[in-house]
């Protein structure tokens, strides 16, 4: 709803103008094979007061290979179980390959209420691991007045 000239603002409206920041750091390592599996600890549950709240998610994934030619692993954000694009990607051409890859997502959450945002990983085989303690997620929510 727009602010009108001469309108008296309520405290709740002003409070919603302030962006809300949330963060979480992973708690443990998860091994493949795995398809869109949760990275332990990289989950945030939050509540929006209005529909169409804007979000900005930054996800950092620490992925390592324990053997050579481990293939491609991917990371993404999930909002209320819906996978978001684009992907964070990792490829290990040789043994002990490791990389910390980041990705970001922006958009709107169509409904008010409780929402769960988490980082998930797809690890193509048993030689890949997502190192949770070096993975993290930051979420910024901006609500409309």
From TrEMBL:
This is Uncharacterized protein. The lineage of its organism: Bacteria, Bacillati, Actinomycetota, Actinomycetes, Kitasatosporales. It comes from Streptomyces purpureus.
